[in-house]
Amino acid sequence: MSELPETFDLLGVGIGPSNLSLAALTSGERGLSTVFLDSKDRFEWHPGLMLPDAQMQVHFLKDLVTPVDPTNPFSFLAFQVATKRLYRLLVTGRSKVPRREFEQYCQWVAAGLDNLRFGRRAENVEWDGSAFVVHTGEGVLQARNIVVGTGLAPRLPRSARGHDPEKVFHTDQLLRRPRDFAGKRVAVVGGGQSGAEVVNYLLGGEDRRPERILWGTRRSNLLPLDDSPFVDELYLPDYSHHFYALPEEERAETVERLRLTSDGISIPLLEDLYRRLYDLDLLEGRERSCRILLDHALEDLEETADGLVIGWRPTRGGEVVREAVDMVICATGYEHGMPDLLLGLKDRLAISDGLPVVRPDFSLQWDGPAEHRIYVQNAARREYGVADPNLSLLAWRSAVIANSLLGLRRYDTGSVSTALDWAGPGPQEAPDGPAGLALNTSY
């Protein structure tokens, strides 16, 4: 953009995969002025956990645009062709690529869009009666609509807070600075994918291998991700429509019941980890290089002269297990909460159980004019279920937002072919009518 409009049609805050998807889908829309801001200097995707062997858990065609717009110039296949690697990818036989490659793809997309502004922090948002006013470190911007995609906040257990961040930290911080694990006693809290990736990483190199790993989880076992074919249909638009239409009291129970469809450990990682433990314990003669505590929850963490003493309470009763360690890595997930950027608008938002109410088009229910909307990305788990934070419906969600913003059905976001039937009609995208911008939509 060579000249900034007085008021943007859409201003996005946060440039992760979600808003990058929306930017890509709307990039060719005539008459639509958009800008996306991020405080980072360049696109990065969970840099603290970009482990060398980490793999994606979704098919590479579930990219930023392909499921709703396969001819879009910012597809993963277009990236593969542009970087002259498509044939080699096909030879690998992969359907799920390394996480580093997905980040490279996103960086390639970011380089091709001219409406992204990195190194610009949005500090707060206000409503002045006619537009949203976004305050940044470099001045004020105005927009008719905003979309917040700032991601989730790392969740630290209460007993893990307030300690030396060099010794007790979330997995989000693992690779953000050099760390020496060699010969140390390391505790890992959490039995999901991130916990397994961290343990596999620590065991994978002699130069970083701890003296001992204590890995604890409240789960009954290191349970696998359930991505079998029929279960995978939970990540189709039809099930998201169905979930939204469920009575509110059923949603939380359903999310918990379906937890392992998104929060389990991939089978290949479990196999690699088990083989690595076999080799270390039985072929190299190391004595229990990793002790795994199942059905144990983090109880407390105390600093002593011998280092940190971590306490684990058996979930089914019994004595607390205590052991001295040098470091504690918390693979304890992320929190779904009110985005900090929207706190200034909190009194104007409909709030339920501490969270804003999300409408079917991913806009928030508020008391302002219906033609001005506050969209959110990755903030509707309560309304849309386990698929919302997952990448599987990334392009679909952005397409729903784009349709609402444009006031027309630019993308087909309705029912798709499924093997399973979900009872009951799903919601419409925008029950109060889309924002309906007056755009030049002829081609």
Automatic annotation (TrEMBL):
Key words of the record: FAD, Flavoprotein, Monooxygenase, NADP, Oxidoreductase
Say which enzyme class the record assigns.
oxidoreductase
Its EC number(s): 1.14.13.59
Q: Which reaction does it catalyse?
A: L-lysine + NADPH + O2 = N(6)-hydroxy-L-lysine + NADP(+) + H2O
Q: Which SUPFAM superfamilies match?
A: FAD/NAD(P)-binding domain
Q: Which domain of life is it from?
A: Bacteria
Pathway annotation from the record: Siderophore biosynthesis
Known InterPro entries for this protein? FAD/NAD-bd_sf (IPR036188), Lys/Orn_oxygenase (IPR025700)
Q: Which cofactor does it need?
A: FAD
**Entry's family note:** Belongs to the lysine N(6)-hydroxylase/L-ornithine N(5)-oxygenase family.
The protein depicted here goes by the name L-lysine N6-monooxygenase MbtG
What organism is listed for this UniProt entry? Kitasatospora terrestris
